[in-house]
Amino acid sequence: MAKKKKKEYRFFWEEPLEEMERTRREFEEAVRSFWSEPFRFEFTIPRISLPRISQISGRVKQTDKEVVVQIPLPGFKRDEIDLRVTENTVHVRAEKKKLSKEKTATSFFTSAEESKVENTYRLPAPIIPEKARAKLEDGILTVIAPKAEPAKKEKKIVVE
């Protein structure tokens, strides 16, 4: 028995029927995958640019008489730095805000920058906060504080 030769031409009414059949198969697949996968709800939050507070690394050294803390703060000026010293810690916070506006006859450009750095350093020995001094030179903040003398309290105890 000879095989029938597949026809090489189409009738104009066959093409829409094939398109409907393909659409039906896609719909059935969509319904099948909808019930086979768990329900998923997605919620996106708009991106908000919050100022980041970065921690900065520093170097803490001690000598026989003083404690020296060196903190890199490139790009910051003296009035943008908040420095607080206690007997056991040095806390530094630097904040810089810059707003620039350029206006020409044909354009208007606004730019805003903000940067913050903050960190607290534990000191290896107690210091005298009132005698601490700091200087900012070449983008490095150096805090120098004399060590506190340990209190030599002596108390006489009566033996019973």
Report on this model:
This protein has a domain at about 55-145: Immunoglobulin-like, CATH 2.60.40. Strands 1-6-5-4 form a 4-stranded mixed sheet, with no helix packed on it. It has 1 helix and 8 strands. It has about 160 residues and is mainly beta. It is about 15% helix and about 40% strand.
In the sheet with the most strands, the strands line up as 1-6-5-4
* Largest beta-sheet characterization: 4 strands, mixed
CATH architecture of the domain at 54-146: Sandwich
- Count of helical segments? 1
Q: Tell me the overall shape.
A: elongated
- CATH top level of the domain at 54-146? Mainly Beta
The assigned structural class equals: mainly beta
Mean pLDDT: 79
The tally of beta strands, per DSSP, is: 8
Q: Helix share of residues? A: 10-25%
As a percent range, the share of strand residues is: 35-45%
Q: What is the helix/strand order?
A: HEEEEEEEE
CATH topology descriptor of the domain at 54-146? Immunoglobulin-like
Distance, first to last CA: 127 Å
In short:
This protein has one helix at 14-36, and strands at residues 53-54, 59-62, 66-72, 81-85, 89-103, 108-122, 133-137, 140-146.
